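Researcher: Please translate sequence to structure tokens.
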Amino acid sequence: MKFTLAVIVAVALWQVFFATTASPTFAGTKVTVGRAVPANEQVSMDHISHASWNSLLVRYVDDAGFVNYSAWKASASDAKLLDQYLRELSRASTTARATSEAQLAFWINAYNAVTVRGILREYPTTSIRNHTPKLIGYNIWEDLLLTVGGAPYSLSQIEHKVLRPMGEPRIHFSIVCASRGCPRLLNEAYAAQTLEEQLDRNARDFFAKKSNFQYDSRAQTVKVSAIMEWFAKDFGDDTPEQLKRIERYLPDQGAKHLAAGGTARVSYLEYDWNLNDQATQRTARGR
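Model: Translation complete:
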């Protein structure tokens, strides 16, 4: 009985501590960004501006997708601008008609912006996995919530309940969980008008890296990012179909021929969960 009471008291004190330090709002372990917008003030995703997000990406993300988190966090004005962008996303209606391109660009940008917001909240840190406990406590993937159309969306919900059902597997080369094993974070916002080119460009960049794709034509073997294992069904029902789905993005004709053949043996590369931080970028060069 004494032990149970001690646990209850400890949990209560833990919640009080985090309630006083969380930002911007806190309820239990939930952190909410964006804002609640009345239905009559919501607009189509066609009319949401991603200009401020684009300006932040240009300023703080390099061509390799590494982020200058320390400088971003040190800038009160740009931290505020990110929060303003998240409030802009909250203006979107989830029911108003919008083009499929605008919807896809909206949710990719939303996922990436919320992730960056979550990392800035914890920075300095070495990995997003430091903030994804399996048992109790704040989990950045589940408890960091963006309000869109009056409803809260976690990163997990955006990925698994919104983006994946859209049937576009290239999202896995565009949404970024702040890790080196992820695709690069583009230093530009995704936009409906350029979405197709951006998705293709980042897919090609992803498979051009040896940390994500390797092959041996003689041995008929392919080693590919663990992303292709975790989300295999998004690329096809079996391994040959999955390889054919990514064939056009592979780095050379030998790789494309092997993928098209449908007989290659596939294994999966170790995933790098280290933070995509410019401060430690030198240790990741050449990957």
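Researcher: Any highlights?
Model: The first strand starts at residue 25 and ends at 27.
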